């Protein structure tokens, strides 16, 4: 519809941020208004000296053309004011991944975890063959074989300053590696009586250089360790069954999820239990914080800037964290065998903000997008689902996999989502169209683990076929 068609082309609109706070008063906009024109309006109303890019959503559907197109295709009534939600876009763009650049053999058993370093320059993998391996991303060849575990390596975790790599094994031991040499640092860290399920580091904006990390185990205990002293500092006891997942939040507390159906919140100076989040009817498999991406990457971003001092790194990490979090509380989402998710504001209430249903089978992983605006979930029902990260409202079901979906990973600009499955494929999904962007076959068996580098240009995957694959845009 042309804007010159008089008042019949106009519509009463309210611009709101993702939290639902209105920007200015109701305004009368022509139906011909485009996202570019809305960007101009938002920048003016926010008094942005530097013009920032924004995306616009109506009922969680991105506006990609004139408003009239949306109204026609969705048969929207123009009787009442239309709410248009604006969200800041990432300054840089990640290209979708579409080809396998390298297939690297070496592991003698299934690859169960892969992780890029926070600056995206290094890659580690853990396998059932008892080794951790570091890979050269420039030559796309094996760099170091790290030996020391006595059984399967179940998880690998980088410190957010990139200086340390630790791995947890099925026999309960934790090993620390020098990423530059592949050598084991000090002796094996022992304390757990059963296998180590997950590891999380204290954020670099709280302490730099990074020293403390927390591990959780099938023995029902979480332990906080000092990487320099190589000894346990605190034991967090209270779960009555295996602890499956852990996050060290930007607010300084630790969240642990367990087979006992509870999430426990711990303070980290004395290890006291400060809150318990209940509601799930079955084991909790995965938890994610709205700030996960910024906690993982610390001071590192797409510019590739390196830091000469821990103080500078801590300062930049704190600025990035505060900017991303704003004045909102951190949100936590949990996914369970009971096929539901809960969205929590743990510092506001011990009651869930929302109970989210929709999956038909076990939820294997939940994952906030880097900008905190979306939640993705992977399920054994062969689907990936997208939800609004603020309200928990359902947004879309992404169908295409013909086997269980094991893991998901977001692109750093929150525009694409990657999934891997028992069906041997990876798939890249476009959040705007909510459709499959790229099908990535190539693995000979189930794909267990994926990671999308924080700087955007590489994806790593590993699985039952014992190979590690690198993919590029």
Automatic annotation (TrEMBL):
Q: Which Gene3D superfamilies match?
A: YVTN repeat-like/Quinoprotein amine dehydrogenase
In terms of InterPro entries, this protein maps to: NLE, WD40/YVTN_repeat-like_dom_sf, WD40_G-protein_beta-like, WD40_PAC1, WD40_repeat_CS, WD40_repeat_dom_sf, WD40_rpt
Q: PROSITE patterns this protein is in?
A: WD_REPEATS_1, WD_REPEATS_2, WD_REPEATS_REGION
| A biological process term (GO) from this entry | ribosomal large subunit assembly
Kindly give the CDD domains that the UniProt entry links to this protein: WD40
What's an example GO cellular component term for this entry?
A: nucleolus
Tell me the compartments it is located in: Nucleus, Nucleolus
Q: Which Pfam families match?
A: NLE (PF08154), WD40 (PF00400)
Q: Which residues form the NLE domain?
A: 16-71
Keyword set, alphabetical order: Nucleus, Repeat, WD repeat
Q: Which SUPFAM superfamilies has this protein been placed in?
A: WD40 repeat-like (SSF50978)
- WD repeat positions: 104-145, 146-187, 189-227, 236-276, 356-397, 398-439, 440-473
The UniProt entry's sequence similarity note says: Belongs to the NLE1/RSA4 family.
Q: What is this protein called?
A: NLE domain-containing protein
Protein species of origin: Cannabis sativa (Hemp)
């Amino acid at each position: 519809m042309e804007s010159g068609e008089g008042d019949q082309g106009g519509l009463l609109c309210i611009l709101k941020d993702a939290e639902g706070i209105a920007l200015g008063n109701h305004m009368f906009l022509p139906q011909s208004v485009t996202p570019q024109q809305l960007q101009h309006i938002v920048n003016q109303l926010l008094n942005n000296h530097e013009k920032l890019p924004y995306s616009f959503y109506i009922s969680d559907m991105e506006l990609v053309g004139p408003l009239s197109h949306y109204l026609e295709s969705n048969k929207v009534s123009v009787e009442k004011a239309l709410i248009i939600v604006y969200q800041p876009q990432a300054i840089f763009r990640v290209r979708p991944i579409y080809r396998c650049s390298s297939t690297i053999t070496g592991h003698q058993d299934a690859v169960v975890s892969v992780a890029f370093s926070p600056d995206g320059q290094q890659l580690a993998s853990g396998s059932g063959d008892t080794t951790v391996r570091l890979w050269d991303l420039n030559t796309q060849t094996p760099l170091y074989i790290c030996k020391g575990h006595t059984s399967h390596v179940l998880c690998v975790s980088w410190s957010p300053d990139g200086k340390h790599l630790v791995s947890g094994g099925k026999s309960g031991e934790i090993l620390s590696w020098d990423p530059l040499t592949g050598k084991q640092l000090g002796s094996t860290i022992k304390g757990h009586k059963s296998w180590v399920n997950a590891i999380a580091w204290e954020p670099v904006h709280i302490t730099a250089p990074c020293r403390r990390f927390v591990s959780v185990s099938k023995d029902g205990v979480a332990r906080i360790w000092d990487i320099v002293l190589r000894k346990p500092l605190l034991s967090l006891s209270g779960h009555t069954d295996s602890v499956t997942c852990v996050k060290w939040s930007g607010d300084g507390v630790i969240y642990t999820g367990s087979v006992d159906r509870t999430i426990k919140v711990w303070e980290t100076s004395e290890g006291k239990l400060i809150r318990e989040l209940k509601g799930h009817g079955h084991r909790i498999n995965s938890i994610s914080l709205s700030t996960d991406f910024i906690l993982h990457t610390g001071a590192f971003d797409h510019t590739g800037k390196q830091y000469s001092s821990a103080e500078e790194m801590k300062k930049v990490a704190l600025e990035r964290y505060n900017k991303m979090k704003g004045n909102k509380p951190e949100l936590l989402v949990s996914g369970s065998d009971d096929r539901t998710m809960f969205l929590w504001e743990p510092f506001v209430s011990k009651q869930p903000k929302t109970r989210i249903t929709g999956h038909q089978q076990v939820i294997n992983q939940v994952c906030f997008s880097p900008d905190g605006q979306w939640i993705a979930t992977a399920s054994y029902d062969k689907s990936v689902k997208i939800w609004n990260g603020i309200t928990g409202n359902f947004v879309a079901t992404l169908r295409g996999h013909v086997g269980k979906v094991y893991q998901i990973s977001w692109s750093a600009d929150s525009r694409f989502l990657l999934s891997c499955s028992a069906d041997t494929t990876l798939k890249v999904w476009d959040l705007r169209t909510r459709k499959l962007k790229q099908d990535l076959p190539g693995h000979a068996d189930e794909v267990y683990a994926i990671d999308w580098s924080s700087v955007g240009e590489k994806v790593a995957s590993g699985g039952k076929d014992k190979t590690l694959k690198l993919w590029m845009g």
